[in-house]
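INTERNAL AUDIT FORM
Audit reference: QA-55
Scope: verify that the stored structure record matches its stored sequence.
Auditor: D.O.
Record contents follow.
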Amino acid sequence: MIESSGTLAELSPETKLMCERPGTFSGGHRMCAGCPTGLFTKMLTRVSDEYEIVAGNATGCLEVASSIFPYSSWQIPWIHTAFENASAMMSGVEACYRSLVRQGKMRKKLKFVVMGGDGGTYDIGLQSLSGAMERGHDLTYICYDNGAYMNTGVQRSSATPLGAATTTTPVGSEGSGRKGNRKDLTKIMLAHNLGYVAQASIHDIHDLFRKMKKAIDHDGPSFINLLSPCIPGWKIDADMAVESARQGVECNFWPLFEVENGKFTINYRPTVKKPVTDWVFSQGRFKHLKKHPDVIAAFQAEVDKQWAWLEMEEARTK
């Protein structure tokens, strides 16, 4: 992988071709120094030359930082809409496109991608996302999951991990951070019987590129849940986002897997599974948990439980 070798020598031919294509997303945006979100946005028009991308964006960090009037970082058709209706909006655009194709008024091949953070996906936008997936629109939804409402001040979302400190789950004499386990949105998307669902991480561009291409190429609804650390929200150094994502994968907090037409494939198994403490204690949002071993034990138990479930599903669907 690039992060271990530091060169392009180990890139696959497909990934090399992706790097050579023109990108979607220009520099000069206003995302935080070190924010990794721009990595996947640059890939959108690089996955294939066979179609053009139309992108939609729920309100959030990516939208705000990339489109402060009168400037825009987007070099493709891009539509911003509210937290709650990004998927509904793109459903309408996709349906309009299909109508124009049927009428012979549109010959260009288009593909449709919706993007949102965990607040606009797990929570506020869940209804419209579920509707778009259930109706079978030909669109890909990419959730960049950073575990809280980062754009509005680091409030807890249903993606916030157990024990994490946020402005609405503060640490003090009455609390040790977020109580209860995070929502598993990937499983919710699996319940929609989609043809393609995947989890990816911003640290592994080989795996991420392959999954983005599969999802966008897929004829019908598809979903990618992408681990994308937030510098100020996770309280990590500006050069640590990619490394923090890697640590989340190495301890099995964020398994890399895909489900194609019901068949599970685990894409990466750590050679030596790291304890969650390696990941947790590298972030300021969890530092208080050193005084709460019971929360750490519960965190580790949940990670182990979910990994066992994933291995069981892979074995079942072989």
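Auditor finding: record pair retrieved intact. The beta strands are 52-58, 78-81, 110-117, 139-145, 171-172, 175-176, 196-201, 222-227, 257-260, 263-266.
Action required: none
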